[in-house]
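Researcher: Going back to the complex we discussed earlier. I've cleaned up the inputs and rechecked each line, so this should be the final set. Can you rerun the prediction on the complete assembly and write out the structure?
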Amino acid sequence: MKKLVIFGVGLIGGSVALALRKAYPELHIVGIGRALQLHDTNLQTAQKLGVIDEIGIDLGQALESATLILIATPVAQTPAILQFILPHLNKNTVITDAGSTKADVVDYATSILGERVSQFVPAHPIAGAEKSGVTAANATLYFGKNVIITPIAGTNSTAIDMVTAMWQATGAVINRMPPTQHDSIFAAVSHLPHLLAFALVEELATRPDAQDFFKFAASGFRDFTRIAGSSPEMWRDISLANSKALLGELAAYQTQLSLIENLLKNNDSAGLQSLFERASAARNAWAHQQAITDKEQTDKQ
Amino acid sequence: MKKLVIFGVGLIGGSVALALRKAYPELHIVGIGRALQLHDTNLQTAQKLGVIDEIGIDLGQALESATLILIATPVAQTPAILQFILPHLNKNTVITDAGSTKADVVDYATSILGERVSQFVPAHPIAGAEKSGVTAANATLYFGKNVIITPIAGTNSTAIDMVTAMWQATGAVINRMPPTQHDSIFAAVSHLPHLLAFALVEELATRPDAQDFFKFAASGFRDFTRIAGSSPEMWRDISLANSKALLGELAAYQTQLSLIENLLKNNDSAGLQSLFERASAARNAWAHQQAITDKEQTDKQ
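Model: Rerun complete. Updated structure for the full complex:
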């Protein structure tokens, strides 16, 4: 890999850059600027920190010789960026992204890139942090983390290999699945929990006596609602992009809540206990498995 | 204060004992044993660690000279314990508890203790940890934490003063409110979030392909579901004891979810953004205020 062009040099894009510098010492990294409303101050910081070598003022020049183009902006910007890229897209250049939803990105790419969609490998790294921006970027963000790539029938196999190698170089674990399966899994384990946390805080915050409640909220509330502090724009985009799967998960969850409501109404002590036992055992087994996986990754590192 | 008798020398009761040792060096602390199904090994550990001075094998002797009796067992044991106490209750002895629900405890105390209910001060310390048992107890658990006391019309004011002084000696901040207000607040900020977290894990865990989902759950899921790893027995008891307030909160939450469901169905980008913005701002303002309060308490300490 000779030249990497990154749209969006924040936590996600910046951390890829830092990790790849170690794997490919000769790699030239360009961050894309102003034309796509990226903040110049952020790009200047990225250059000062050595995250990127060059700010891509001239879009055409930056793109035409790129080995790999990584789109790491908020996902709603992806269609506009693909349109910018298309006229400058060399036939050997590979494009990938890091968006949290995949079926919508595949649809955009198919309609915008046409037959050149074969050069596009949709991907989603399952890593992030409460912090954002290039100052939060670090070379080990992806170490031991899952990255999901969702190729379609027309995706070029050399393109898949290049994106796989790129993520492996960051220390990530690669998984492949169809875009719709990706969106269905993340609707359940990520998008729905965010919606539920936003809903709880909204419901409390809009009460006239909200402060009487917030005053006594403690550590359980803190952890449960942490994700309700996430970016409203990002979660609006994800919710709309994945609304079909998310509505399905929301309906299943509402059914579950109605079951619990009935257990409470019927004073069903045994029913509640058995439900709480299953959930508690499943949650603790999951956390135990996560701890084992984390330790294995730390040991490798 | 001369003699403190504690039913349930675990994290909660043990931490009270350790904190009070500092404030009242002459205090004699008795832990109550076998008759009420407490584990002897736990009490022996408590004595070895210096948390208690004596294991209360003889219930009558232990209780008759007590200045203060603290009930810090799971809340479902409270009625039986009050019945045990009553025949041995000196007229100057004060009883308090540390249960997570208050209206039910007040009802039990009123019906079991009769006019002696004037000696009972219902209380709830808002502190805890994922750990449990006396080995997790520590003298600073309550420092800067809220303790809510919920006296009723007949509660003796000297009893209130004694329990207030006891909690202040642990470093806690005392709040007073009626039992029903307590239960209504905690239904919203604690009991409902627990129920919602149990519901999410249950809904996922009972799918045939649950592992495909759990495999990709990450840090947002981890924090959101942490409280679903809590004790099933304890949360069964709390849910049933406070079912009326909890059902009210659950209904309000379901209404909120239906609103969000409609925003998604209508592809209402502005509506979702404005809801997520309000929730995110409220959650971050709450966390900011908590950080200030925590820092003030740490500075005092």
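Model: Worth noting: Chain B has two domains: 3-177, 181-267.
Researcher: Good, that matches what I expected from the previous run.
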